[in-house]
Amino acid sequence: MGQQELKKPTEDFWDKYQPGLAIDCVIVGYHERELKILIMEYENTDLYALPAGFIEKNEDLDTAASRALYERTGLKDIYLSQFHTFGKSDRNDTEAMEIIMRSNGLDFDKDHWLLRRFVSVGYVALVDYKKVKPTAGFLSSQCSWCDLDSIPPLIQDHQKIIDKAILYLRDHVDDKLLGANLLVDTFTMKDLQKLHETILGEKLHRTGFHRKMMDSGHLERLGKKKTGKAHRSPYLYRFSSDKE
Amino acid sequence: MGQQELKKPTEDFWDKYQPGLAIDCVIVGYHERELKILIMEYENTDLYALPAGFIEKNEDLDTAASRALYERTGLKDIYLSQFHTFGKSDRNDTEAMEIIMRSNGLDFDKDHWLLRRFVSVGYVALVDYKKVKPTAGFLSSQCSWCDLDSIPPLIQDHQKIIDKAILYLRDHVDDKLLGANLLVDTFTMKDLQKLHETILGEKLHRTGFHRKMMDSGHLERLGKKKTGKAHRSPYLYRFSSDKE
Fold first, then answer.
1. What domains appear along chain B, each with residue ranges and CATH number?
2. pTM, rounded to two decimals
3. Is the ipTM of this complex over 0.85?
4. What is the pLDDT of residue A244?
């Protein structure tokens, strides 16, 4: 999606893309016991948004989401899950959109396709924070990580989209894929507990958590972590592969 | 939505409705230990489908779903939940759509809006089987209940939409609202267990189920069911109201 696309008349744009439909991606990383979200900043506007995408006429919805994710992160084949479709009739933020378009020197009329109503399908992606190369998008936007608890005011209903994505993660916190995508390959039980606590936003009881995780059958215990003090070192774990 | 709407040129239809977007409703009832689904039949075509709807330009997505549901069932203010959006690029079934349109004596060209690609938002509704008045829709369709395990072949990906809705219900089987919407006001523990077993498609252990339900805090025990044999009569329960 480049500046050229934006200059297209609405009919031409609708010819290439599914009209009135967008994708918003909540791209989540985990680093130093904080959840991080990838946020776009439109230069010279003080306006912030989630990374978004459009769906090509002959493209599967999931493929369009993977493509949007790849364009912003450089990553492929990662955990990506649709969680909710946002369709309030007043969710468009025409004023913000006009500011962004003007700051890009774009001529447009009031009926420009980008100013019309969009319904947006929300996807949540779990990525390895260190592997991501945040990449700028169209409309002179920069892309960077924000801590979940210090996200700037976002355009449209994007904060609600993030809130709903976090509720989705809470509902799926015991899903093996969730931990496997946010933690490094091997981790201590304490690392795993901290991840769960960060997602759930509450403290968990150590022994209860340990038992539940071992009962899940998803974890494989490896050797002790090398710390120089063997008798006090914690064990390392990894998620068992599917065939086990 | 009447025959007049169908005769509209695509541009006029897109002026009134959100283009390329539909709603499909999986309307679920429960009767004599069977889950029932409301299915539309297009007369003289042998074609079956889920009840569907379109979203007006200035209408919230949820409102459009409520409207579609009301039009087919005569019911308002019932459990209705969005569960997934279906967006495979090949999900349209042009051939079936053309048969349906022809059987309604409708003139159309290959570019008619109803033949274009639609992304569809799936909603599941839980209704009181006895209160529903199934009501015919547009395109000469009849609407009637089918047992979940004997649904005729459906057009498009509608069977997949039902399958996904049932998985959603399984994930939410412990949700108080689910039971409260599918059972009559008071019920025995056995009634509740049968409902859970029907949704989950598996037998549950009686004492384990009983304990789990009582631990949930959602149930209120009333008097014994009047059967004439007081010492063997089961207790009646109801779902406790939110304030309790």
1. 3-171 (3.90.79.10), 185-239 (1.10.10.10)
2. 0.91
3. yes
4. 40
